[in-house]
Amino acid sequence: MRPSGRTPDQMRPITIEPRFTRHAEGSVLIGFGDTKVLVTASVEERVPPFLRGKGQGWVTAEYGMLPRATHTRGSREAAKGKQSGRTQEIQRLIGRSLRAVTDLTLLGERQITLDCDVIQADGGTRTASISGAWVALRLAVDGLLASGKLTVDPIKQKIAAVSCGIYQGNPVLDLDYDEDSNADADANFVLLENGHIAEAQATAEHATYDEEALLRLLRLARIGCNEIFAAQARAVA
Amino acid sequence: MRPSGRTPDQMRPITIEPRFTRHAEGSVLIGFGDTKVLVTASVEERVPPFLRGKGQGWVTAEYGMLPRATHTRGSREAAKGKQSGRTQEIQRLIGRSLRAVTDLTLLGERQITLDCDVIQADGGTRTASISGAWVALRLAVDGLLASGKLTVDPIKQKIAAVSCGIYQGNPVLDLDYDEDSNADADANFVLLENGHIAEAQATAEHATYDEEALLRLLRLARIGCNEIFAAQARAVA
Amino acid sequence: MRPSGRTPDQMRPITIEPRFTRHAEGSVLIGFGDTKVLVTASVEERVPPFLRGKGQGWVTAEYGMLPRATHTRGSREAAKGKQSGRTQEIQRLIGRSLRAVTDLTLLGERQITLDCDVIQADGGTRTASISGAWVALRLAVDGLLASGKLTVDPIKQKIAAVSCGIYQGNPVLDLDYDEDSNADADANFVLLENGHIAEAQATAEHATYDEEALLRLLRLARIGCNEIFAAQARAVA
Amino acid sequence: MRPSGRTPDQMRPITIEPRFTRHAEGSVLIGFGDTKVLVTASVEERVPPFLRGKGQGWVTAEYGMLPRATHTRGSREAAKGKQSGRTQEIQRLIGRSLRAVTDLTLLGERQITLDCDVIQADGGTRTASISGAWVALRLAVDGLLASGKLTVDPIKQKIAAVSCGIYQGNPVLDLDYDEDSNADADANFVLLENGHIAEAQATAEHATYDEEALLRLLRLARIGCNEIFAAQARAVA
Amino acid sequence: MRPSGRTPDQMRPITIEPRFTRHAEGSVLIGFGDTKVLVTASVEERVPPFLRGKGQGWVTAEYGMLPRATHTRGSREAAKGKQSGRTQEIQRLIGRSLRAVTDLTLLGERQITLDCDVIQADGGTRTASISGAWVALRLAVDGLLASGKLTVDPIKQKIAAVSCGIYQGNPVLDLDYDEDSNADADANFVLLENGHIAEAQATAEHATYDEEALLRLLRLARIGCNEIFAAQARAVA
Amino acid sequence: MRPSGRTPDQMRPITIEPRFTRHAEGSVLIGFGDTKVLVTASVEERVPPFLRGKGQGWVTAEYGMLPRATHTRGSREAAKGKQSGRTQEIQRLIGRSLRAVTDLTLLGERQITLDCDVIQADGGTRTASISGAWVALRLAVDGLLASGKLTVDPIKQKIAAVSCGIYQGNPVLDLDYDEDSNADADANFVLLENGHIAEAQATAEHATYDEEALLRLLRLARIGCNEIFAAQARAVA
What we know:
6 copies of one chain form a homohexamer.
Chain A: E1 14-18, E2 26-32, E3 35-44, E4 58-65, H1 77-80, H2 85-99, H3 104-107, E5 111-120, H4 125-146, E6 159-167, E7 170-173, H5 177-180, E8 185-192, E9 197-204, H6 211-236
Parallel strand pairs in A: 4-5
Antiparallel strand pairs in A: 1-2, 2-3, 3-5, 6-7, 6-8, 8-9
């Protein structure tokens, strides 16, 4: 039995509020149950130094957690003076995932930065961030298309992410904090709507796992991502 | 004429959503028009080193601005590795203001941290933060009283803050970004419900000002704070 | 009774030694009683990036306290690797104050940096810094005028600053450390010779204050600044 | 055809020089072809703060790359003042992997730190680090057993890691730098001798991949890890 | 001919103003010509962690240069967020030199910190710092003896330092900035009154030097230090 | 008697393995007994900002110690976020020493960086670094000459360095860790093959020393450097 009473392949309710803030070219408040992440997409007409003059754009991400997004208050990274290894690992993953579905040459010499700030955390903040970031990116690119700055859509596909894990011996979908902190293994999958994989990461926490378990986790992830793709489609409709 | 069409002594709509997040002992999303600040109050049963064993508590604040809260994206302080002088100045002001209405001895040997994170900025983020922080603090202390951890209320009074300024020669209340960025002078007042002043700061931006102007700004601030006191009362009712 | 035996409206002796060091374009050792601040004005023929090509100059300030300027040794900010919030707040105030009396367009595309280093502290270091910085700036600009680099004086007025506070219930002028550390409220005023205000900051420390008190503090500040204006005039004569 | 002329399932030569340095309780220079990593295991009779008094030990890792381990010189992280996101991601992975085969309770209240410093890089530095770290850990624990500080072996299994990827459409084992920098997708697997998985990470670089490809990469990894297990066994014999 | 017209073995005027500031247990403004360094000695009744419980004290130093001590303004180390290699090298030298003449066991479990802040620089700031630090240390220890906190004097000898160099082919004593920036070689010697050497450092700048030159520089240093010893004796008389 | 049984003027075995790594333009693993330092020389076709357009090149050095190069593990400077004063002092010395034998104008507008990383430490790491850096520089410059990028050799002479010290009252050559940590005084000399001195540094640790001792240490250093010059010649033959 899962602490939340969900079935093994049951996602938490997915909520997506597009255009949650006014200034960003794209923005969204995405919720996977009690996990809430504000994602903004900011378009800047310049590229980082390593891409100057190469005729292509860039998509990147930054991730943060408000100090009291969590059960007990964590320290503020700006006050500590550095981002944790966890933060950097997550923001690298988000950027990489969104670039996997963007044609950077079609984007032109501009950068889109996806800021993912966790307002409330209950497990799965990185996967909610990726899933929300696609919506924010979509909205920002729609604006570029509408204004004529872009004439061809550089976004090749939808992308979504979800966590799964082995909890008390059973593969389950979309871990919440109670499950995540006690899982034998947890995994994050970043999937495309056509079934392809952009990223698979599966980590033994309290017990190693076998190939069969890896495949069962991947299949759960497909179920979850299909729900997310549907929610994304409604949000940008 | 003000860009927003407001009269000189007219506040923007004040919105206060108490208990906006679940984990914090107190939380609120406060809005002064398009300025939106999430404030959480976190109770910790320990005090900073300089107060250990002194039989009193502490109230402190941290302030942050999400990178795309503003019209153009600002850099993330956690990524830059330090908080700006502006950030530090504001969080010092917030903490000082809330301590002005808290009896730290009655609070006991515990610390309450007020995290003020700006979700969307349109002028007045520091005054919205102070005004919202009082609500978050009130909710957190109510919890301590309800649980029996406190038996006497350490909050002595309500406190609120608002900005005013000289815009195109006229004193006006509650500057939005358009006004703030062009004001001759701007001021922030932190006031108590009994009319007393906890903090007055008035700065010449494009023109110095005289004593008469200072008094007129203070009187506008009283008008604004009275509206905020009423909104605070409704929020914690 | 004040610990120093001064009357409520009595300044400490003001000492100004112009040209205290040789290399700077302007320099001064200013004393308000036992508070001693060395201020240098450095002229550089360049402006910060945000002003390049805008046809105007810049005046900025940096502030520091020698580790043993105080009663007990404080840690060296260079060794800790960052400037405190207090330091940043003060240097922002100093720069803003001096810019309030400088016509930056007349200054031309050059920057004047006012370094205010506290040699010995006994209360009022920020107000002594501002008052001394005007002298250093005046000397540096006189040099630019004498050399023909400037033909029109960009300094519009004198500026001075002084602290006041409510000490044991009474408004007093120019707090020393003993008073400052026990004041109910303290205030810093930055005033022009024509009576206008560039900056007013009044903070409740142990007790909030009312409008009447604010006005009495401002009037004390005028008395103090008039003495400082006279001392500045003698120093640059 | 692979640039090196290897077959798809062919590892580069694996070299392991145990006891490469004298001071560390365990040390090894491991080579996967031209990739050379020096790993030392340092035993300290204390645990990090979060584990004090919990009756268990800790295994952790730090990773670094000498500035000229690479084709062109990279900047020294100590001089830049921070570790990159990549460095932190890798050292977190190494520590996690080694903890997966260590019984931390049997280790007792002591910490073993695995320092993995890349002397020369040609792809696969993180997997060489993990594979070498097991040898260094084994040697250090053997010392603790020999000295009587431990009486029961806390290392539960062998662990090894290898990279694989899709290069020009074909799954290949143990990418060198030429392949790694042009791969469609690359993956790192951390495997146990009994076939279980401690960590699987597969990332689309230039093209997403499907479930079948993921399984083929995993099977290549098993081939590679079996060679590494044999080399580890020879090294500690 | 030296730019200043001095003879090869002629020091600049040495000025020592003891008790230049009020709060420090010892303080001095020392001048070697236009080089002016403020040195304070701060006594703290604690020792650094590595000496706790070892029954001995510690003497250490910190060095700083005010931004406009030099001909052109240098950046403030506190603002840059780190001390330069030069600063650290100098403060390590100062601390080591003073410890060479202090019996740390006799000092008891307390620390004396020598803060050397350069007010104005014209060559020789590190040697002026060491020479002044001895005076500040002497004054601080005299206070400890006078108050009965110490009964036996832990200072074993006088110590002084001076620079020398090869300027236009000739060994000269006490380089000023003009000479220092053009010297073929420069050297710093830290000497005891009994003729012994605590530190000798001689560096080729534009030309290497031979043993004979090293000895001639050392002999010039003896001449200079004897003058400094006399000035130190007058200052603490 | 020396702990190692060596005679006072006996060096430890000198080992030099040129071309220890593949990517660097020059590389060497140098050993003075158990002290092992990997030095690489990296050629970059650019100069630091302060030399741009001046028609000359630059030679600089960076130094690091692997965390477990020493008897007990030291913390990793990259993880601490700054280089120690000792590290900076050493790398400044290495760079200065190599520049003393390089004609920077002949080098052209390029920079050669010498990275000295201590693999294993047993005293004398800075002198081994300098001695090895000459070999790495020589190899890198030979490559520039062979490729025709340089036509005239900018290296003017060989340079080598060795430590000496007063151990139990006797001057000895090439201190190992046991001697170094107990020496009364220690010294580092950087010498040219023609007998000239590039750098002499002699420091009292537990006892000051006299002129006669300084000269005896210098003479021991000549003996040691002559052995190093011979080893360097063999390595680059």
